[in-house]
UniProtKB/TrEMBL annotation:
<protein>
    <recommendedName>
        <fullName>Out at first protein homolog</fullName>
    </recommendedName>
</protein>
<feature type="domain" description="Out at first protein BRICHOS-like">
    <location>
        <begin position="1"/>
        <end position="130"/>
    </location>
</feature>
<dbReference type="InterPro" id="IPR053897">
    <property type="entry name" value="Oaf_C"/>
</dbReference>
<dbReference type="InterPro" id="IPR026315">
    <property type="entry name" value="Oaf"/>
</dbReference>
<dbReference type="Pfam" id="PF14941">
    <property type="entry name" value="OAF_N"/>
</dbReference>
<dbReference type="InterPro" id="IPR053894">
    <property type="entry name" value="OAF_N"/>
</dbReference>
<feature type="domain" description="Out at first C-terminal">
    <location>
        <begin position="154"/>
        <end position="222"/>
    </location>
</feature>
<dbReference type="Pfam" id="PF22873">
    <property type="entry name" value="OAF_C"/>
</dbReference>
<comment type="similarity">
    <text>Belongs to the OAF family.</text>
</comment>
Amino acid sequence: ADSGADCISLELREPDGALVTLTADFRQEVKIFRALILGELERGQSQFQALCFITRLHRNEIIPSESMAKLRQKNPRTVRQAEEVRGLEHLHMDVAVNFSKGAQLSSHIHNVCAEAKEAIYTREEDVKFWLEKGVDGSMFEVLPQTSDLPDLQRCKLCTDRWKPCICSYSLNIEWYPCMLKYCKTRDAGGKVSSYKCGIRSCQKGYTFHYYVPQKQLCLWDEET
């Protein structure tokens, strides 16, 4: 947590070896997911593939950066179980973000998405929210949709590795501090007041659906 910059960064490794980073920029109301996915070298892919998904950060999704900075883990080696499992969210990422202009949306995009310059995605509904806040619309480009290309299939159904298709990528954040807990105390005069006395932890899964110019960029979608 960086309370000065009002942001939080969380990093985890998925069971398949992918490294996932979640950055919450409270100041700009932006959430950035970055996935570094191990490539399949024998199938012509590079060593790893990087993806960035950017969505609007809503209030009370995650605890404030100031509170996160004060957290201390008593037993760092303990495997934690989330108290609340929040439902799986399907996000249709129908807009591409221009990396060189992305700093206007959030200064963290430059560092977090550096390896994913050609694969930064967001949603039209989130773009509308940011445009109302005064963000420059020239950094966004609407991606082809099924309505534009009737032959566009989901990548898992596409047999030609060089055809465009709709890719799906899923990630699961097993444990993160999502809410503050408050306890009540009573003073000598009987007046009741509340104070922060801990955190509530959550687990949440996301599936992102987005356009790729060729199935070769979405080979993991065959195994699901």
